[in-house]
Amino acid sequence: MDRFERQYILPGFGHAAQKKLCEAKVLVVGAGGLGCPSLLYLAAAGIGTIGIVDGDKVSLSNLNRQVLFGQRDIGKNKAETASKIILQKYDDIKVIPFPIFLRTDNIIDIIKDYDLVLDGSDNFPTRYLINDACLILGKPLIFGAIYQTEGQVAIFNKEGQKSVNYRDIYPTPPTAQEVPNCNETGVLGVLPGLIGTLMATETIKLISGYGETLSGKMLFYNLIDHSTYKIELSKNPESDLQRPQSVADLHKMDYHDFCGISAQLDWDTIPELLEQNLETVLIDVREEYEEPKLEEYPYTRIELSQLDNAHESLYKFTNILIFCQSGIRSQQAAKALQEKFPDKNIKSIAGGILSLTIRN
Fold first, then answer.
1. Which has the closest alpha carbon to 41: 68, 72, 14?
2. Are 247 and 112 in contact (CB under 8 A)?
3. What rounded mean pLDDT belongs to the chain?
4. How many angstroms separate the CA atoms of 75 and 291, rounded?
5. Could you name the Gene Ontology cellular component terms for this entry (predicted)?
6. Of 121-125, 275-279, 342-346, which one has max mean pLDDT?
7. How far from chain centre, in Å, is Cα 357?
8. Which domains does the chain show, CATH number per domain?
9. Which of 207, 304, 308, 348 is most open to solvent, judged by the fewest CB atoms within 10 Å of its CB?
10. Catalytic center residues
11. Which secondary-structure segment (H or E) carries 26?
12. Per-residue model confidence (pLDDT) at position 68
């Protein structure tokens, strides 16, 4: 008896479908709330090669929904930690960690060797980047997203550029104010668990040819009353006009700019700005409990939810530099403050404090 017996004795599945799973290569982007349950079930099902992309580190606030990790993993890279945990459970598959964030200059080299991509990312620039790269390379994309008590699952690009993709559904990125993340709105850990498991289900079905997939459809689920419904998706002819058509075009794209996110700085520029200009302030918009704390530079902490109440204290500054955990909330804060103070130099720090700890 092998560990896949209960799968291949399933009527309509069989050894042929299991062989397809064992030969498949799946790239999972994001080892977070969606990626963790997906990874567990993909590995358990026998996916032969699993790549894991995530430059983030485990924090205490992740643990209610990122079920691969525990308290002893806090501060460790998610991709590397998830890889080790999965290999401890199953030594008959190959797991490749990529402890980095996807960018226009690295995504093609990473995705090209995989059969399909599962997108468990949590920000719009990355979602558009993954979608466009998958279109250029002809890779199917398993999409999932959550917001408060609701979740969505879909399969994009099943037949290459001929089928529906993310841009057909969302040709224009929503603003940060329209769709805040779970750091601001909260989430019950079981919701990404459910949606991530559905994403793994669709991945397994797509590879094995078992059952009807969500290609060309989107499934909606609500945790409050367990209501579900599906809608048929259709191509948007104008969406192809906005996306890059080649690898060269992709390299030129600024996805943060496309998504309306403010210009960013990196940590190397911060010391000079703080030393030479007394009218510069560095702001941490994270919650008080979030780790690690910044020790290298003086800063002021103003939680993102309290930013509107802090306008009076910011009038005296010419340069306002903002950071958070990974650079997402700081971009939202920078955009909001720039609208309030159009004459000030307001910048988000790319990659947040995690990019500083990785560099150090």
1. 68
2. no
3. 89
4. 8
5. cytosol
6. 121-125
7. 20
8. 4-254 (3.40.50.720), 267-355 (3.40.250.10)
9. 308
10. 182, 324
11. strand 25-29
12. 94
Residue type, 80: E
Q: How far apart are CA 207 and CA 21, in angstroms?
A: 6
pLDDT value for 23: 96
1 has pLDDT over 50: no
97: cis peptide before it, omega within 30°?
no
Tell which residue, 84, 22, 20, 86, has the closest CA to residue 48.
22
Tell me the DSSP string of 264-304: EE-GGGHHHHHHH-TTEEEEE-S-TT-SSPP-SS--EE--G
Handedness of CA 304, 180, 122, 102 (dihedral sign): negative
For the cut 70, the answer to whether the pLDDT of residue 247 exceeds it is yes
SS3 state at 104: coil
The token pair at 354 is 């995690």
Beta partners for 26?
Answer: 50, 116
Sign of CA dihedral 70, 73, 78, 81: negative
255 or 277: whose pLDDT is higher? 255
pLDDT digits (tens, 9 = 90+) for 309-321: 888 888 788 889 9
The neighbouring-strand residues paired with 116 are 26
What φ, ψ does residue 200 adopt, rounded to 5°? -65, -40
Report pLDDT digits (tens) over 67-115: 999 999 998 999 999 999 999 999 999 999 999 889 899 999 999 999 9
CA distances from residue 111 to 106, 138, 234 in whole angstroms, order as listed: 9, 10, 25
The Cα–Cα gap between 314 and 134 comes to 43
User: For the CA atoms of the chain, what is the radius of gyration?
Assistant: 21
CA dihedral 335, 329, 194, 168 (to 10 degrees): 30
Is 244 strand, coil or helix? coil
Dihedral sign of CA atoms 229, 234, 246, 172 in order: negative
